[in-house]
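Session log. Operator J.P. requested a structure for one protein chain; no other inputs attached. Running the standard single-chain path with token output.
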Amino acid sequence: MMFSLFTRRPAPVAPVDVPAATRRPECGETWSPAGVSVAQRYYNQAHAVVLVYTAYSPDRHYVACLGCPFTKVRDLSKDWTSLGLNDAAEIANAHAATCHALPRDLPAGPNDDAVREHLRKWVEVARNRVEEVEIWVEALDPARLTLQRTDDWIEAALRELAHDEPSLLLVRTSEGARPRFFARHCIPVS
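Structure written below.
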């Protein structure tokens, strides 16, 4: 008893009010751009969001960090196959555990003319010298976070491009199916 009277004890500390965690949708916590379906979100070491998302094809998943330029489209260890949900989740979790990038502002949605110009350049690059090359809309899936457009909008823009520049792009439609787009060959065959 005597020792407890003479023992030094620290002065009681007043409780500190810790503000409740606030949601920051501008950093990607709730962000889901047009044309993209977000399957999972992970936080990196500095609280930036790592997304696992799908776009045109629901069985192909992509990983993108909103803090750094990291993206993952295919699994190179499995013969370039597209990512399933479990593989994408593992990659996103591994990246989130090691990434220290700070949250950045979300990419602003480009205007329609900028997206149309992006699509036109994409078709021009795909052209072949000899034959028509089929253009797959799902090939744009990795760029969907910056394009921020739906499949229907992209298909309508490609139809408009084919109408405006028939020497560049051809559209083939069959009843009940989605349209197929073909980049025309560069040199006319004589």
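Operator note: Residues 27 and 106 are 6 Å apart (CA to CA).
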